[in-house]
Amino acid sequence: METVQEILVDTVWALSYLTDGGNEQIQMVIDSGVVPFLVPLLSHQEVKVQTAALRAVGNIVTGTDEQTQVVLNCDVLSYFPNLLTHPKEKINKVVLDGLKNILIMAGDEASTIAEIIEECGGLEKIEALQQHENEDIYKLAFEIIDQYFSGDDIDEDPSLIPEATQGGTYNFDPTANLQTKEFNF
């Protein structure tokens, strides 16, 4: 006779197989109402349950934008970062793929999703995966950082921006606009 744990593992794997069948099957799983129960299984104590739940959630985020939004509404971004430090490479890769799919789906809102990932501790863990020995994981982590967490939107010091001249060149004057302070000893 199977234990409750084994039944849970088998059930979640069944959901992962169903969500692997395309958008119509993903939608049927969503319509069944199980996604709000599925996402929290990403933090289950049993690795077999986590793995099956991750596979199902990973499949859902390959669906339509609306289907991906369902797992976002279930707070999936708070669960993903902890899985980025999992010792199994396959789990790291599936989480990175899931994050990338979510960021792609977000379109103009990708920076908002990136902020949430950062607030949940995900950025540091993605950065650490850039040192991973598995080349696929390294490349995927690098790509996510490069595309969604690069310094493009970091506030720059306007006094350090070079002045454009008429000839199409720039005037780099490191002393321009510097505020000097007198030291009193």
Automatic annotation (TrEMBL):
SMART domains: ARM (SM00185). Keywords: Protein transport, Transport. InterPro entries: ARM-like, ARM-type_fold, Arm_3, Armadillo. ARM repeats lie at residues 33-71. Coiled coil: none annotated. It holds the Pfam family Arm_3. One of its GO terms (biological process) is protein transport. PANTHER family: IMPORTIN ALPHA. Belongs to the importin alpha family. This is Importin subunit alpha-4. It comes from Limosa lapponica baueri.
